[in-house]
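Researcher: Re-running this chain for the archive, since the previous output was lost when a drive failed. Same request as before.
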Amino acid sequence: MSAAATDARTAHDAGVERLLASYRAVPEASAVRLAKRTSNLFRTRARSDSPGLDTSGLTDVIAVDPEARTADVAGMCTYEDLVAATLPFGLAPLVVPQLKTITLGGAVTGLGIESTSFRNGLPHESVLELDVLTGAGEVVTASRGSSGGDAHEDLFRAFPNSYGTLGYAVRLRIELEPVLSFVELRHVRFHAIPDLVAALDRIVATGEHDGVRVDFLDGVVFGADEGYLCLGTGSAQAGPVSDYTGRQVYYRSIRHADGVQRDRLTVHDYLWRWDADWFWCSQAFGAQHPLVRRIWPRRLRRSSVYARLMRLERRFDVGDRLERLHGRPPRERVIQDVEVPVERCAEFLDWFLANVPIQPIWLCPLRLRDDAGWPLYPLRPGRTYVNVGFWSTVPVGAVEGEANRRIEREVTALEGHKSLYSDAFYTREEFDALYGGDAYRAVKRRYDPDSRLLDLYAKAVQRR
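Model: Regenerated structure tokens:
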């Protein structure tokens, strides 16, 4: 082991000790929570005065093993830092969520997805083992159980979608895959949603389109008669590339009249193509206006900055104040990602476009890699799902969260699931049926017997 690797592991061990010391310092009557500078959650959360756990030593890549194609990573390490450590070896995580400040631990406990998910599943499926600080104040190593003895496989299986209510990831060992230096893009236009969904399903099944390999696959719907599949193929061939970190906006580059439009990015810029404009949501802050964009510093053109601006807007109710000044009602936040089976995707999109005034809509197909499944987010192995993402606001309805409630009912009726990073309105019975209630409670009793951490339903639904 090199001196640098030894130093990294020593620093990590010291960080774990500080984490444990901060846990022991939390009064027994107080809830345990992390002290985090950033968050990619969009739930309305009650403020807490309890001290947070010290994660200052848990933000780094501990080691990259290019021969084994693995990385040991601290739980609070961002994907931005993780990718920066792996790309020099020609490697990347199997799934790199779209926003730079998403942490590896956060993507595993809270789910994540991207354009490799049609072949690589979800981020937690590339985890080989993880160290978890449990609600009982112990650090345990959880794995798939192949090592014999107590591998804490029940915690390993239940950790995804537990959102920190079973414990916090301290270290994760993940698989990596080879990547080439460039990504060749084909943006394929469709004039009807059923045609787009059918093509997406064929690409997932075959791994190609028009005889060309597809390594990356997502899509954008702008309306019932305008949708695109964005097909990426890795390439080692050097040549001109586009740059969407400056004045150009990536999602606008997708649109064209008909057929196929081609583009080219470095693999680094492809992985972060959505971050510079938070998909398309930077428009709410004027960041896409040519004059504003010219003076907006490039280093501040990133999702973390827009998220801070959004939190300030929510804190001071700027949006609702402006609506009142114009004689309009307040607006309901509809920031959601849902998974629906591919065979029901066109039906859901038709319903959504007819009932929810939000466009564009992001599409990202996925298939689980692991046939054993994951009890707290029970997608069916061997089945193709499509993540449908939509992030905006609509006029408030007659009851709190009216649009979100309607979406929840439609997704459930179509055998889908909704991610829990944003507001949810399920009853306890509905929630237990959708998110593995019995399995969750069994693991909760073992690893958080004194309920030092929040209950998942309380955290995802009731904390408003």
